[in-house]
Input
Amino acid sequence: MRLFDLHCDTLSEATDTGAALAENSLAIDLRRGRRYENWTQTFAAFLPDGLSVTDARRRCATLLDTAEDWRRACTEYRPVLTAADLRDETAICRALLSIENGGVLAADYTGLAALHCRGVRMVGMTWNGDNTWGCGCFGSDEGLTAAGEQAVRDLEALSIVVDVSHLNTCGFYQLEKLAKSPFVATHSNAAAVCPHPRNLTDEQFGIIRDRGGLVGLNLYGEHLGGWDFAAVQRHLEHFLSMDGERTVCFGTDLDGMTIPPTWNGIAIMQGLWQYLRDRGYPDTLLDAVFYENARAFFARVLENT
Ligand SMILES: [Zn+2]
Output
C-alpha cells in the first residue's frame, strides 16, 4: 500500500529528544515507514502559541535545521520541493515540510520567501490560540487580522499551501472569501460525527471539496470520538458520503499525541488499511484516500515551483 500523511509532529519531538529519523522510539521512523511501497510524509514545524517573534523564528529555524540534518544523514530521505520529487521512487521517505502556527512568526513577505527557500511548502495559519494572523478554535472569536489576510496573499503568491486546521470559524470564512487557490485542512475530522471545536462542519468540508482542496483525518481519539478503527471509519464514511472521495485523506498527527502503544506509530496505517479493506472498501478508493488524493493535489501545486 501507498501512504501520504499530511501532518505529524515528529520534527519537534526528534529535535527535543535527539532521536534519529532512521530508527527511534517516536511514532515515525524510516524503519517502520519502509513497509509502504510509496511513502510521503509531511513533517510540521510546530510553533506553540505565546512565543515571542524572536523565539518563534529561532524555534522554526532549529526545526528546519533538524530536517536538513535528516537530509544529510539519510539518503533514504528526500525533501519534496518540486513535483518531480514526488515522482522519485528511490527514496524511502519523501518529505514535505510545513509550519504549524505561522502567525506566531509575524512573518512579512521576505520571511515567507525565506521559508520557501528552506523547503516549506505548506503553512497553518494558527494553532489553538490567537496570533498575529488570526484566532485558533480555542482563542477569541475575531477573524483574520490585516496581517493574516496579507499572509494568505503572500503564501499563495509563493505557491505555499494554506492549512486551516486549528483556525476558528470566523477566520475560515474570511479566508474562503480571500483565497484564490485551493486550501487544505491537514488534520481535521467531521464535526457531524464528533462535535469537537477542532472538527469541520459539513459546510466547511463542502467548501474545501468544491475548491479542490484536501481534508486529512487525524487519529486523535478526542477528535474521533474513540481510539479505534471504527471511529476512523465513521469519519471517513461521513466525508465519503459528502462526495469526498477526491478530498479526504489522512493527516495522522502522530507524535502530536500519546497513542496506544500497540499502534506501533506509523505502522498503524497498514492495520487501518486492512481493517477498511475487510469491510469492503475497494483498493482503488483506499489508495485514493491513503495516498493518491494528496499526491495529485501536491503534484498540481508544485508543478510550477
Ligand atoms: Zn495540530
